Amino acid sequence: MSDTSRTTPQISAETPQIAIIGAGIVGLGIAWRLAGRASVTVFDRGKAGAGASHAAAGMLAACCEAEPGEEALIALGRDSQARWPAFAEELLRASGVDVELRREGTLVLALTADDQAQIEHLLEFQRGLNLPLEWLSAASTRAREPHLAGKIAGALYAPEDHQVDNRKLALALRIAAEAAGVVIHEERPVKEIFVQGGGARGIVLEDGTIVPADRVVLAAGAWSRGIGGLPPDQRPPVRPIKGQVLCLRMDAAAPLLSHVLWVPGAYLVPRRDGRLILGATVEERGFDDTITAGGMLTLLDAAWRAIPAIEELQIEETWVGHRPGSRDDAPILGPGPIEGLFYATGHHRNGVLLAPVTADAMARLVLDGVVEPAIKPFGLERFLPAQAAE
């Protein structure tokens, strides 16, 4: 809420002072890109990279998940996908951390003729967008992944839908950002955006401390709507979407799987160190973080039907994440409803995929006032009444 009784401390006019709310992959990526031209401070309610960034599977699935009605989001995903190789290389140089960009591609498995018909129906739309996708016969699919179940119909192959290790990505971004001069404050929850004179002038922490800033970036993921300082109808319409995930342990020298594999009801993501990520449930349960027998059973059953040999693997870890879902499942990227405020939230299942384009475009917007064409369709105004958006 606006509070004109407070006095904003003076800030330097020479170097922009930027406060970022949220130290996940999105917030850290933007901070890293801003650091060369601004003084950047990041605040997070928990540990840096410990939210959805930690819970994700790291898939860069711009092609195989493309659906009708999401043409702008598909274009954004493809733009970011193209930036990923250079982004990963630059991060390696800046942080010393290899985020393990793997290029085997993704398989969308059809176990039955009905699965195949469903995939082929969607493939007609996807090919209309010139997406690089190929239908593989059962024999060709098994040649790529010999441990698949005895009876399959085939698979859709997405050669450019790669993966990275999301946890290493969060670590690399933190190291790179701090090396560039970004200051990160963990376990410092932000209560509200400090609004004065019709603009964002900083943030207010839960303990009442006012942190002055020229510009504020709201990148708090599923918690974004809970940040005060604005009327309810001007807060980003983002909600938590619960996902349960588990990790199995393969033999790294003889893994059961090498591609990212989508199967009916689940996905499987192999890591170089032998981990096999199984995810993820999609639940509208707020910030509930319980692991349930039903959730684990659903994932294990779906994975077992595709690769029966997983039943011999050790369960290494289970966890819950909260995806930041907007009303249309697309991100909210752009200026906020008041001067000096910017939104980078609502990435839903695409936070890792969209990390490069979000970091680049938001840094350009915050510092230069330029809205790149790729993010133009994703502003907050699409959710506001027509008269408010004008």
Strand content: 15-25%
The count of domains is: 2
The amount of helix comes to 25-40%
Q: Determine the structural class based on helices, strands and strand pairing.
A: alpha/beta
- Taking strands numbered 1, 2, ... along the chain, how are they ordered across the largest sheet? 4-5-3-12-13-14-11-15
Largest sheet: 8 strands, mixed
Strand and helix order: EHEHHEHEHEHEEEEEEEEEHEEEHH
Gyration radius, to the nearest Å? 21 Å
Instruction: Give the overall silhouette.
Output: globular
State the separation between the terminal residues, measured CA to CA.
22 Å
Overall residue-averaged pLDDT value: 94
Number of strands: 17
Low-confidence spans: 1-13
What is the level-2 CATH architecture name of the largest domain? 3-Layer(bba) Sandwich
Architecture overview:
By secondary structure, this protein is α/β, with parallel strands linked by helices. The chain has 2 domains: 171 residues, 3-Layer(bba) Sandwich (FAD/NAD(P)-binding domain); 146 residues, D-Amino Acid Oxidase, subunit A, domain 2 (D-Amino Acid Oxidase, Chain A, domain 2, 2-Layer Sandwich). Helix content is 28%, strand content 24%. The chain has 9 helices and 17 strands. The strands form 3 sheets. An 8-stranded mixed beta sheet has the order 4-5-3-12-13-14-11-15, with helices on both faces. Strands 6-2-1-10-17-16 form a 6-stranded mixed beta sheet, with helices on one face. Helix 1 packs parallel to helix 6, helix 1 crosses helix 8 and helix 3 packs across helix 8. The longest helix has 25 residues. The N terminus is likely disordered.
